[in-house]
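User: I'm putting together notes for a lab meeting next week and I want to include a structural view of one of the chains we've been expressing. I don't have a solved structure, so I'd like a prediction I can at least talk through. The sequence is below, exactly as it appears in our construct file.
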Amino acid sequence: MSLAFIGGAVVTRKKAHIAVELVSNLMGPGPMRSALLALVDFITLGFVGLLAYFSVTIVERMHSQRMTVFDLPMSLVYGVVGLGCFMMLVRQAQVVWKNARDGWRRAPKVTEQIHAD
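Assistant: Thanks for the context. Below is the predicted structure for the 117-residue chain, given as structure tokens.
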């Protein structure tokens, strides 16, 4: 479970996360499409930021709990989750920065889009 959050950083970098891109794909290039893509990027950044914040709170709460086998604090397990969340936050901030530099005008590559089987 914990490693899935580390893998989330890789998925964020490759822009392979679950997304509904129907509206932006149907819109032609222009200011409305750029505004929509910017809004989606900032909402995603905010969501991942909240996820990182909540991961810190759960690590703090689980520090007093112990693993029964090794007598280590459970916060070590949840710390990996927090690390993955912060890695995703950094990657998403990089995506927002890159898209902002491009003005949210670059059309998505066909190879980046996931096609239904």
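A couple of points you could mention at the meeting. The mean pLDDT is 79. The longest helix spans residues 31-62.

User: Perfect, that's what I needed.
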